[in-house]
Amino acid sequence: MDTIHCAIDGWVDTIPVPGPHGTVSFDLVVRLADNDALDDAPDTIITCTSSDPRITHELLNGIQPGDLLRATGTLVQPPAPGEPARLTADALEVLETALIPVLSDMVMDRHGDYCVVFDADRDQVPVFNEYGQWVGLADNPDAIATLIDIHERVNGGDA
């Protein structure tokens, strides 16, 4: 199996999960540098693990889906085509935090160029544009489309 020591920049795909013996695992979504030139090029998922106590603590307490990280460590090529590559991280750097915090009792969803956050304890739905800027608070899920329509009319169609 081929291994290489490298640094990978990617977005945290799901909430990091504790593993056995003080380890943690998480997936990074990696976009190729020239991915914009390729219309339908898929993102790559890199499965990462670490047993470093500092990294484990940070991943379990301070990292959320959507954070942009640089994970440095040993990359092992997948054993079979179609399986994800695996990185054992020995260093971690937060390059950028997610625009909207994701709490465990909330669900984020997209409506075109807009992001909404559903909270099971509330009828109201916060709405943000694609840049994470506040758009408004819809009274309920059925009112999201109306709020977005008003926002686009006021702002000339710009999200």
What is this structure, in a nutshell?
13% of the residues lie in helices and 43% in strands. The protein has 159 residues and is mostly beta strands.
**CA-based shape:** elongated
Run of helices and strands: EEEEHEEEEEEH
Stretches where pLDDT falls below 50 for ≥5 residues? Answer: none
Radius of gyration from CA coordinates:
19 Å
N/C terminus separation: 47 Å
Per DSSP E runs of 2 or more residues, the count of β-strands stands at 10
| Approximate strand percentage | 35-45%
Tell me the helix content. Answer: 10-25%
Number of helices: 2
Quaternary status: single chain
Structural class: mainly beta
Structural write-up:
This protein has 159 residues and is mostly beta strands. The chain is built from two helices and ten strands; from the N terminus they run E-E-E-E-H-E-E-E-E-E-E-H. The longest helix has 11 residues, at 144-154. The mean pLDDT is 83.
Summarize this structure as a short list of keywords or feature phrases.
159 residues; mainly beta; five-stranded mixed β-barrel; four-stranded antiparallel β-sheet; 10 strands
Q: Layout of helices and strands, plus pairs?
A:
Layout: E1 3-12, E2 17-18, E3 24-30, E4 44-50, H1 53-61, E5 68-76, E6 85-96, E7 106-111, E8 114-119, E9 125-129, E10 134-138, H2 144-154
Parallel strand pairs: 4-6
Antiparallel strand pairs: 1-3, 1-5, 2-3, 3-4, 5-6, 7-8, 8-9, 9-10
